[in-house]
Amino acid sequence: MIWIGYTTRYREGGDKMARAARTMASEKRAQGATVRCEPVESKRAFRDAMSCLEAPLDELHLITHSGMYGPMFGTTDWPEQFSPHEWRTMALPFAQDGQAWFHACRSARWFAPFFARAFHVPTYGYHWYTTFSLRPDRFVWEGPMSDRDAPLYVVGAPGRKSHGLVGSVMKYGLGRAETPRRFAPTPDDQQLGSYDPVAEMYAEVFDDIRVRRDEWRWLVDRVPRGARVLDLGCGNGALVAQLSGQISSGVGVDVSAGQLAQARRRCSSLTNVSFQQIDGPQLPFERDRFDIAISLLSWRYLDWDPLLSELSRVLTGDGRLLIVDMAASPAKTREVFRLVVDRARGLASRWRHDGARAALGRMVSDARWQEMLRYNPIRAEHEYRWYLESRFPGARVELLNIGWNARMLAFDTGPFSQARLSEMQYP
Questions:
Q1: 8 A C-beta contact, residue 266 and residue 260
Q2: Which residues sit opposite 251 in a β-bridge?
Q3: Spatial CA neighbour of 50 closest among 100, 97, 11, 8
Q4: Three-state DSSP class for 264?
Q5: Per-residue pLDDT tens for 96-113?
Q6: Structure confidence by residue, pLDDT tens digits, 293-303
Q7: CA distances in angstroms from 143 to 20, 172, 331, 418, listed in the order given
Q8: How, if at all, do strands 94-103 and 181-183 pair?
Q9: Given strand 94-103, what is the order of strands in its sheet?
Q10: CA-to-CA distance for 70 and 323, rounded, in angstroms?
Q11: Pairing outcome for strands 315-328 and 290-296
Q12: Alpha-carbon distance 65 to 73, whole Å?
């Protein structure tokens, strides 16, 4: 059994996604294979399609757009993406020699190797962005005069988004296409990318959380005096420790035992602060336990849909989630002045915290930090904006500062009682 799924609604090019899927299905059938080809516009539709298969999967193909953490469903007004936790809870019926192909932008950078580990099947993806081509082995542009019934393929290719003008020349002029990258199954060690090996270095860098001047000022102004605070991905505990004088209680949660050891050491004398280790998005707290939840530099790693479902339970109706995180987005020409100003302010802040500046240099050059980053990529800016603003109508993602290739974003959900969570599909 070969299953081919595709989306049409998430972004532009939906009709071409369908054509590419039909082309693939036709060629597979011509080879004598049993093929099922169908659109899957939501997470629920994908799960339903997998549960209706009549035979084990020899090949799974998904033709779609993707974010850094995998295929996207829905629309940009209501984006859906399975979290790592949700993928791991699925039972996909692969045959003994089954394999998976994700025909989507950047699917080889994180998702394909993760999928290979999670489902123990060889998995293919593209490192670069994908495009549509009249040939499968090289890029051939489908111009306005092309036959709309001609076969169409998804190929990976360097292009304007990845290589600027040079990339466009390489694609249109040379027809250069990328060979899909294959990832062999390896043990699904969920500790890959853990902060444990870098916990001590991280604690040195953020000994005083106020070294992150813009982020700290944005957060502290939004935490009411006497609030009960949940710190998601608390790391070394520096944030909740700094807030301890103005809150009634603070609980930090993290998956990293090494980080929690640093946090408990730091906060051993604080009677209103405690820490718990968690495994996955489940939060071990009763209903209405907290007034404020904070995610400082951790939201990119978290299981968004499952976690929002849990937060809707443990936060009061008037409770809110405060998110500050880094997103991948190169500085634009019109932002050059702000870029210069923000970088100057950032350098000044680090010079005032000389120990943090030196510790940061040691950490980012350490091989253990580089290994951790391989398993924890930064999401794109539009992923934050489309997702968060769809779930919390009226709230807007704010821009705190700009770097060369990334920027710091902030988001205040407002009261959780006003969130749009009815469509969430956390199993």
A1: no
A2: 230, 274
A3: 100
A4: helix
A5: 999 999 999 999 999 999
A6: 999 999 999 99
A7: 16, 11, 31, 47
A8: unpaired
A9: 35-39, 2-6, 57-63, 94-103, 123-125, 181-183
A10: 22
A11: parallel
A12: 8
- Residue 29 tokens read as 């059938």
Of 303, 325, 410, the residue nearest 70 (C-alpha): 303
Tell me how far apart the alpha carbons of residues 295 and 338 are, in angstroms, rounded to a whole number: 25
CB-CB contact of 237 with 275 (8 Å): yes
Termini Cα distance of the chain: 26
Quote the CA–CA distance of 262 and 164 in Å, as a whole number.
43
C-alpha to C-alpha distance for 175 and 180, rounded to whole angstroms:
16
| pLDDT on residue 343 | 86
SS3 content of the chain, % helix, strand, coil (to 5): 35, 25, 40
Q: Which residue has the higher pLDDT, 176 or 15?
A: 15
How many Å apart are CA 202 and CA 233, to the nearest integer?
13
Q: Which amino acid is at 53?
A: L
Q: What Å distances lie between residue 147 and 134, 142, 144, 294, 322, CA to CA?
A: 10, 8, 9, 53, 51
Decide: 125 and 181 in contact? Cβ < 8 Å: yes
The DSSP annotation for 126-191 comes to: -SS-EEEESSSSS-----TTS-TTS--EEEE---HHHHHHHHHIIIIIH---BPPEEE------TT
Rounded distance between C-alpha atoms, residue 36 and residue 191, angstroms: 36
Region for residue 208 given its phi and psi (left: phi exceeds 0; alpha: psi -120 to 50; beta: otherwise): beta
Contact criterion met (CB below 8 Å) for 281 and 307: yes
| Stretch (H or E) spanning 117 | helix 111-119
Least Cα distance to 312 among 421, 427, 229, 425 occurs for: 421
Query: What's the rounded Cα separation, in Å, for the pair 22 and 151?
Result: 8
Contact status, residue 261 vs residue 198, Cβ threshold 8 Å: no
Query: Nearest-CA neighbor of 107 among 171, 169, 61?
Result: 61
- In sequence order, what E strands does 81-139 have? 94-103, 123-125, 130-133
Tokens of 341: 């100003």
Query: In the block, which residue shows the tokens 């609980």?
Result: 251
pLDDT the model gives residue 2: 98
Query: Is there a contact between 238 and 270 (Cβ–Cβ < 8 Å)?
Result: no
